[in-house]
Each structure stands twice: as C-alpha cells, then as structure tokens.
Design brief:
With about 400 residues, this protein is of the alpha/beta class. The chain folds into 2 domains: about 20-260, Type I PLP-dependent aspartate aminotransferase-like (Major domain) (Aspartate Aminotransferase, domain 2, 3-Layer(aba) Sandwich); about 265-400, Aspartate Aminotransferase, domain 1, CATH 3.90.1150.10. Helices cover about 40% and strands about 15% of the residues. The relative contact order is 0.15. The structure holds pyridoxal-5'-phosphate. Pyridoxal-5'-phosphate binds near residues 75, 76, 77, 104 and 158. The site of pyridoxal-5'-phosphate (PLP) has 14 residues, from helix 3.
Length: about 400
C-alpha cells in the first residue's frame, strides 16, 4: 500500500508522527534476524536482551532518569493507567485524585471510571484553567487534602501546547506526602526534561508522538516510589510489567530518544520559527482569527487557532483537498458536534471553539509548506464564511457599526 506521504503536508504531529528513517533502520534487525526472546538464557536471545537494555539507557538519558526507573509498556495510555491505579492500590484509604479538566482521554476517562474499576468510591477534583489555558497554583494547593493519593497533571496539553508548571506542582504534592504523575507524552522530545532535579514520581511517554512506532510507551517510576503492577505475568521489566517485550518497537523508541536529544535544539529554533511564521501569518491575513492558549508558555510546535463563525470540520475537508493534514478542536461524538473539552474549559466562545484548528509541526516540515498553507487558508475561510448563517449577521453588524 502506498499512502502518498511524500505528497502530504503533515501538520498533525500531536496526533502521531512519522517514524524517523533512522528508527526504522535500528528496528529492522529485530523484525528479521534477531528474533530471540530477551529473557532466554542462550546467547541468541541474550543479545536481544542487551538491545532492550541499550534502549532503556537511551530513554533514561533523554529525561534524566536511571535505567532501572524505566518500564516499557504498550502505549502512553497504559502508562497513565498504571501510574494512577498503582497509587490508588498503594494508599487504599486515600480515595482522592487531583487532575485537570484538560487532560488527554487517557487520564480523563480513567479518572471518570475509577469507582467502577476499583470497586471503591473515589473523589476526583478536576482543576479548571484560565482563558489562556494555564492552571492556578493557589487553586491547586487548596485542592490537596489528607486523603489525596495522587495528582495527575499533564506536562503539556496536546490541543493547545500549553505547558503546566508540573515541577513546582510535584514539589507541593511531595510536601504533603502525595504521589505525583505527569502525562508527558507531548513534552518528551520537545522540551528539556530532567527528572533528577524534581519531585515527579511517575511520568508517561508514548513512542509514536516522538518519531518511534505506535504501540510502545514508557512509564518512569522514581526509585523508591511504591509500585503495584498493572499487568501481572512473567518477570519481565523486573516483575513490574508482565508480557514479552515488544523488542523492535522498544529498540525504535530508544533510537528515537537519541534523535530527540540531538534535534531538541532544532525543535526549539527551526520548528518554533516555522510555527510562529504560520501563526503570525494566519492571524494577520484572516479576520476574526484568534490564538487559543498562552502565547509563550507553550510547546514550540503547536498552534491552535480559532476561525470564528466556521466549522473546524469544514476547514479540514478543504485543507484535505490540498493534502494538508491538521486537526480540529471538536470531536464528532454520537452525531452531535461537541466542541473540545479543552477549549470549553478555557471558556472559548461557542462560535470560536467550533472553528478551531490545531496545527502541530515537526522537524520534517519546511518553509515551503508553511508558505503553501498560508497561501490557501484565507480563501478557504472566506468561502466558508459566505455560507455560514452565523457570519452573515456578524458581517452586517460590522458594516453598519451598530452593536445590536
Ligand atoms: C497521544 C497521547 C496519549 C496516548 O498515547 P497512546 O500511546 O496513543 O496511548 C496520552 N496523552 C497525551 C497527552 C497524548 O497526546
């Protein structure tokens, strides 16, 4: 099958990323020749075990951890579930969880179903965010209580790119004897992380968000943190996660972490430059366009823009004609168009939340691609607005100059 990836302008890297060619090269032997089981006693398996250990080392280095603190999992979602459920089993009498209203479904849905999963009644506090998507630390401090088992706050938001002060928050949790988990799926590889210097107990990574394959993740567990496995089985991962290792993907993730360490500077200069050019261009050429999320406290690759009075889905369909891939902030749930829970939490008005588009770039994007997108979007928005029942009154209002 040929998906035509060389024809595509891919600006949806917070949904998933291209596997780096270097990563494919590193994986290939483990999909062909080197098929031994890393737990086997013989040399044939043992050398595969060494490759898994090398990958563990590479992941640890990227985030300033020790190799023993790295557990390979099947995905970011598994890592999030494992951390939160582990804490709740560790502190059986502490039934309170603190999280935010803007988490990824991996955390949000889990927190919503804790009572049915554990058979205990849990109390969940979901912190609100300000209009720019940032958290209020005073509200956070007040939410921590004697029966809080764990705090789960994402390092960076997947829809807006807004970065949360998780290191400060983790310190506040530690002072109260509360465990702290961060879903760092969007942050790892994009911004520097050094776990030696903070009080974070658990951290989740997903391979496919940093140019490694889908279906592999990591849970970091700080040395000394009480831990209850999610998957019980063999003695893999020092008995902390049963199941024969997904060797090829683990090796790929290790390579991707090495590459991320090397390209982090590019991410923060070249990618940021492209993102800023795209964003400034769109805000300057399209009337009634607005940025969602804090302008600077944000990932370098993400831009979430609302084009008021149009539907995000309609914009995406038009972009699709030009092979431009992006995401809309609304998700089509059970036939009705629900605006994104993140933008709703930020209080983005209905007419803007529905017309939001997330552009998320990577080191593979080019200046030409940004120019092309900047060339196409203003006409797309103008055309859609001509058909929008919401735009007509807005246009008249602006033309007549009366506010009614
Ligand atoms: C993609 C994503 C996840 C889920 O990772 P999977 O490996 O797809 O399970 C969790 N959190 C955030 C913030 C994400 O962007």
């Amino acid at each position: 099958m040929n998906c035509g990836s060389d024809q595509v302008i891919y600006m949806d890297n917070n949904a998933t990323t291209r596997i780096a060619p270097e990563v494919v090269d590193a994986m290939m032997p483990f999909l062909t020749d080197c098929y031994g089981n890393p737990s086997s006693m013989h040399t044939f398996g043992g050398q595969v075990g060494h490759a898994v250990q090398d990958a563990r080392q590479a992941v640890a280095e990227l985030i300033g951890a020790e190799p023993e603190e790295i557990i390979f999992t099947s995905c970011g979602t598994e890592s999030d579930s494992t951390a939160i459920l582990s804490a709740l089993q560790t502190f059986r009498d502490n039934r309170h969880v603190v999280t935010t209203r803007v988490e990824h479904p991996a955390v949000k849905s889990l927190c919503a179903s804790l009572t049915s999963l554990t058979g205990h009644k849990h109390r969940v506090t979901s912190l609100t965010v300000a209009a720019d998507g940032t958290l209020d630390l005073d509200q956070y401090r007040d939410s921590l209580s004697d029966d809080t088992a764990i705090v789960s706050v994402m390092w960076a938001n997947n829809e807006t790119g807004v970065i949360f002060p998780v290191e400060e928050m983790a310190q506040m949790a530690r002072e109260r004897g509360i465990l702290f988990h961060t879903d760092a799926v969007q942050a790892v590889g994009k911004i520097p992380i050094n776990l030696k210097e903070n009080a974070i107990d658990f951290l989740a990574i997903s391979g496919h968000k940093l140019h490694a394959p889908k279906g592999v993740g990591v849970l970091y567990v700080r040395k000394g943190t009480p831990f209850v496995p999610f998957l019980n089985g063999g003695h893999q991962e020092q008995g902390r996660r049963g199941g024969t290792e997904n060797v090829a993907s683990i090796v790929g993730l290790g390579r991707a972490c090495q590459l991320a360490a090397e390209t982090m500077e590019e991410e923060n200069t070249k990618v940021r430059g492209l993102r800023d050019k795209l964003e400034k261009g769109l805000l300057a050429t399209v009337p009634k366009a607005r940025l969602n999320g804090h302008p600077s406290q944000r990932l370098p690759n993400t831009s979430n823009i609302s084009f008021e009075y149009v539907e995000g889905e309609a914009i995406l369909l038009h972009l699709n004609k030009y092979n431009i891939c992006a995401s809309s902030g609304s998700a089509c749930t059970s036939g009705s168009l629900e605006p994104s829970h993140v933008l709703r939490a930020m209080g983005v008005p209905f007419t803007a939340a529905h017309g939001s588009i997330r552009f998320s770039l990577s080191v593979y994007n080019t200046e030409e691609e940004v120019d092309f997108v900047l060339d196409k979007i203003p006409a797309i928005i103008a055309e859609l607005r001509e058909m929008s029942p919401f735009w007509e009154p807005e246009k008249m209002k602006q033309a007549s100059g009366d506010g009614s």
